[in-house]
Amino acid sequence: NKLHAGAKVIFGNGLLEAEIIDTMPGGTRKVQFKYQGIFNEILDKIGLMPLPPYIHEELKEKDRYQTVYAKYQGSAAAPTAGLHFTPELLKKIEEKGVKIANVTLHVGLGTFRPVKVENILEHHMHSEFYMIEESEALKINKAKEAGKRVISVGTTSCRTLESAATDDGKIQASSGWTDIFIYPGYKFKLIDGLITNFHLPESTLLMLVSAFAGKENIMAAYEEAVKERYRFFSFGDAMILI
Fold first, then answer.
1. pLDDT recorded at residue 126
2. What is the 3-state secondary structure (H, E, C) of the chain?
3. Average pLDDT over residues 149-153
4. How far apart are CA 213 and CA 191, in angstroms?
C-alpha cells in the first residue's frame, strides 16, 4: 500500500530505480524504470528468480526452474509440466515416431493469481503474450489431419493452442495477447490430451484440468495423489489426461 503513484524504489545500490506511475486494479502497479546500461543484464545481476508463493527457498541454480527446450526470454515462470522432460527423454519420444512442436507463452501474473470471487465469470485473467510459428502450426495440423492426437505439455501450452485454434480444430500460425480463461463447460477445439502437474486449490489451472477431464475425475485423481503421497505443485509429479 505504500507503493502509491509517485513513489520511488531503488534496487541494487542504485543500479535500478523504479517510479510508480499508476495504481492498477487488483493491486498491481505501472512502473517506469531508470537505469544505465542494458536492462536485462541489470536484472540478471540484481534480480531473483520469480517463484510461486509456496516455494520459500531461493534457487541456487536458476536452470533448475527452466525447461531444457526454453528459447525466448519474457516468461515470469517456467511451464512446470515441461520440467519433467530431459534431452534424453525427448529423443526417446521422437524415436517412437512422436512429432514434437514448440509454442511460446510468456506466463504472467494471471497464472499465479487465485480465484477469489464466488462467480468465476467475474474473475479477470491478465493478458499473456503467445507465439506459434508457421512450421510448428503445420506439424500440429498435419497430425490432426492424420487422425493423431495432440498432447499438450502443460496448461500453458494448452492455453496457447486453444487461443490460436479455429472452431474447426485447426491451428493458425500467429502471435498476440490472450486472456483466455478455461473452466468447466469450455469446449476444447484442438487438444486431445494434457500432461500436467497437480495444482493449487482455487486456481485457474485446477479449473482448466477439470474442464478437460471432468471435476469428478480430477478430484478422484487428487485423492489418490494425496493417499499415495505424490508431490504437488511446480516441482511435483505429473499426470497425463487423455
1. 76
2. CCCCCCCEEEEHHHCEEEEEEEECHHHCEEEEEEECCCHHHHHHHHCCCCCCCCCCCCCCCHHHHCCCCCCCCCCCCCCHHHHHCCHHHHHHHHHCCCCCCCCEECCCHHHHCCCCCCCHHHCCCCCEEEEECHHHHHHHHHHHHCCCCCEEEHHHHHHHHHHHECCCCCECCEEEEECCCCCCCCCCCCCCEEEEECCCCCCHHHHHHHHHHCHHHHHHHHHHHHHCCCCCCCCCCEEEEC
3. 98
4. 12
Specify whether the CB–CB gap between 76 and 50 falls below 8 A.
yes
> pTM of this prediction?
0.84
Whether 105 and 157 have beta carbons less than 8 Å apart is answered as yes
pLDDT in the model for residue 197: 95
Burial readout 174-197 (b: 16 or more C-beta within 10 A, e: otherwise): eeeebebbbeeeeebbbbbebbbb
Which residue type, as a one-letter code, is found at position 48?
Answer: L
Sheet with strand 29-35: strands edge to edge: 8-11, 16-23, 29-35
Closest CA to 142 of 176, 96, 105, 101: 101
**Conformational region of residue 32, where left means phi above 0, alpha means psi within -120 to 50, and beta covers everything else:** beta
Bridge-partner residues for 185, per DSSP?
none
Q: How far apart are CA 239 and CA 241, in angstroms?
A: 7
